[in-house]
Design brief:
This protein is of the alpha+beta class and 494 residues long. It has 2 domains: 3-101; 167-493, Cytochrome-c3 Hydrogenase, chain B. It is built from 17 helices and 15 strands. The chain has helices at 21-33, 86-96, 167-176, 184-188, 195-209, 216-244, 248-269, 289-315, 318-324, 332-338, 342-346, 354-357, 378-405, 458-462, 465-470, 478-485, 489-493, and strands spanning 3-5, 10-12, 37-43, 49-56, 61-68, 74-76, 99-101, 126-131, 143-149, 152-159, 278-279, 282-283, 425-432, 437-444, 450-456. The chain has a 4-stranded antiparallel beta sheet with strand order 1-5-4-3. The chain has a 4-stranded antiparallel beta sheet with strand order 2-13-14-15. Strand 3 and strand 4 (49-56) form a beta hairpin. The relative contact order is 0.15.
Length: 494
């Protein structure tokens, strides 16, 4: 039996009636055929149960089901019907050796001890180009193998896993040591440039498991920080895209704006990345009254300058437009078939945003605008960042007024450290990070410890967008296409 839940709603695991794995597969297919989206597919650590979570985005509902393993070592693959299941099934196979039969691309996802057989084109005219895994500059490792006909890319395969750090297991081990309520530093380290988003997903899950109600003022600060993280990263991304076409005047303009925004975060909590700001039970830092006005003025100035810079350096710059428009196209059908999320999905017309589809906290009362584009090229992935910057700034400025007029000054539940998790329960926590959808799913055991801590970053969904975007493009456009997604190696490797 499947359980219907909301974002951050508790599930009593004893109320889940396990199916046979063949039954679970058929019911997953039925839900996907009916418009559902695969959100998670994973096993418990003892490999006794497979858990599946399906997202019904238009209804803001999540469906959770499970199946007994019972020694079953194989099942008929879901991917042959729904390509969006590919990465989930590869991960499941790699971690449990439960084989999805007739899977079209059952290669290692992170484990380099298994051979990764790259696709080959047998032709004298086609040559192979390898890039990485070590790259120039300060960048995480990943390996890219191209088959090219002259300068034209015919095929790209990506091998990741170099950043695999076993962070899910660390959550579980620390919980069994009685430290599960104080793992914010671990959440902040999942993806460094998304420290706020991942920590929010963690604390939302823990607060649900402990039935904690966070002070309203703390919720405002958390959401403000989430949107500041989005603004800063989007500004930096626009600059990096311009830098990848050699237009450093435009790059420097947007990087300077990013610096102003992340320096504002520094003033809030002492870290430009929001480290130590968010804790289970609230936040560790408040906003001084004079800083509220300062922040509103700063964001108003950033908004004005971003508009001016985007006009000068992007929309009215024919040289820039010639490189961005029509380059690296991902279609709406591609996005739907492969399960892309976040700005990658929205840039080609897929209406998907956790802030509106599964609102939590302040977003339940004060929703934020959702933006869609249709072309799915580098230009649209650049413009959507710009538009989201404007919308986030507008939302923060309005929320600062709500913050200053709120009656309560409490920002932290001082008795939260003495609470315990509910045993044999599960919670799914969704947050819209700046790249897209982030999921933390926590299952507790009989003792109330983490039996399973499952994480999914938006990059897990979106790395398959890059090979689609570069197909038929020149090799020289690969860095630009890659930067237009700006995916996280660490977020994939976990």
């Amino acid at each position: 039996m499947w359980k219907s839940i909301k974002n951050c709603e508790l599930v009593n695991l004893k109320e889940l009636e396990p199916l046979l794995i063949t039954q679970l597969r058929e019911e997953i297919l039925d839900k996907l055929h009916s418009g559902g989206r695969l959100l998670a597919l994973f096993c418990d650590r003892n490999i006794h149960f497979i858990y599946c979570i399906i997202a019904l985005d238009k209804h803001s509902q999540l469906m959770m089901g499970c199946a007994f393993i019972h020694g079953a070592a194989e099942y008929e693959s879901l991917t042959q019907h729904f390509p969006a299941c590919e990465m989930f099934e590869r991960e499941l196979f790699e971690t449990t050796h439960i084989r999805p039969l007739n899977h079209p691309n059952l290669k290692p996802l992170r484990n380099h001890s298994n051979p990764f057989l790259f696709h080959q084109v047998h032709s004298k005219e086609v040559h192979e180009v390898g890039v990485g895994p070590v790259h120039a500059g300060i960048i995480e490792p990943g390996y890219f193998r191209f088959n090219a006909l002259g300068e034209k890319i015919l095929h790209l395969e990506i091998q990741l896993g170099y950043q695999h750090k076993g962070i899910e297991k660390l959550f579980e081990d620390f919980s069994k040591q009685g430290r599960g309520l104080h793992l914010e530093p671990l959440a902040e380290a999942i993806v460094g440039d998304s420290a706020i988003a991942h920590t929010l997903a963690y604390v939302h899950a823990i607060e649900s498991l402990c039935k904690l109600k966070v002070p309203k003022r703390a919720q405002h600060i958390r959401t403000l920080a989430l949107e500041l993280e989005r603004i800063g990263n989007h500004l930096g991304n626009i600059g990096d895209i311009l830098g990848d076409i050699g237009y450093y005047l435009g790059k420097d303009a947007f990087i300077a704006l990013k610096t102003e925004v992340i320096n504002a975060m520094l003033k809030i909590c002492g870290s430009r990345f929001g480290i130590s700001l968010i804790s289970v039970g609230g936040v560790n830092y408040s906003l001084a009254d004079d800083f509220v006005q300062e922040l509103a003025e700063l964001l108003t100035r950033v908004k004005h300058n971003a508009k001016v810079y985007f006009k000068i350096h992007v929309t009215e710059n024919s040289s820039v437009l010639s490189r961005l428009e029509g380059t690296g196209i991902v279609t709406l059908q591609d996005a739907m078939n492969h399960g892309f999320v976040g700005l990658t999905a929205r840039s080609c017309g897929m209406d998907l945003d956790v802030r509106s589809d599964y609102p939590c906290g302040v977003f339940q009362e004060y929703p934020i605008k959702n933006t869609l584009f249709e072309n799915g090229d580098v230009f649209d992935r650049t413009v959507i960042r710009f538009v989201e910057i404007l919308h986030s700034i507008e939302w923060i400025i309005q929320d600062l007024e709500r913050y200053t007029t709120s009656e309560s000054r409490e920002i932290f539940l001082h008795n939260s450290s003495s609470t315990h998790y509910l045993a044999n329960h599960c919670v799914v926590s969704l947050v819209e990070g700046w790249r897209g959808e982030i999921m933390h799913c926590v299952l507790t055991d009989d003792n109330g410890h983490f039996e399973r801590y499952k994480i999914k970053d938006a990059s897990f969904n979106n790395w398959n967008a890059l090979p689609l975007a570069v197909y038929g493009e020149g090799i020289s456009d690969f860095p630009l296409c890659n930067k237009s997604f700006n995916l996280s190696y660490s977020g994939h490797d976990l």
